[in-house]
Amino acid sequence: MKKFINLSMSSFFISLILLSVWLDRETLTIDTNGLSSLSTMSYSSYFYMLLQYSIGITILVVMIRFLLSWIKKKGKEDNKHPLRTYH
Fold it and tell me: How far is CA 81 from the centre of its chain?
């Protein structure tokens, strides 16, 4: 259980840092006439978006890790079963 907590905390902070570097607050929109305009998100909306994406990435990483550990555990149990012999 401690591994999952450490994994979730590290994936959350790493994704938050990387998303803050990669995602821009400014977006360039082009209308139908070909004119472009620059719009900037407020800081509160930007941080809320970063938190949303980071939580989603963290949930995905923890679910994948849980699934992989379950498959690994299931594989070990299948190998220990005494009645299953493959000849």
Answer: 36
Nearest-angstrom CA–CA distance, 86 and 27: 60
**What is the DSSP secondary structure assignment for residue 37, as one 8-state letter?**
E
Query: Are residues 61 and 18 in contact, defined by beta-carbon separation less than 8 angstroms?
Result: no
Q: Is 75 helix (H, G, I), strand (E, B) or coil?
A: helix
pLDDT confidence band for 76 (50 / 70 / 90) = confident
Give the integer Cα–Cα distance in Å for 60 and 57.
5
Beta strands in the chain (DSSP E): 26-30, 36-40
77 vs 8: CA distance, rounded Å: 27
C-alpha span between 25 and 42 (Å, rounded): 8
Name 36's bridge partners: 30
pLDDT in tens, 41-57: 999 999 999 999 999 99
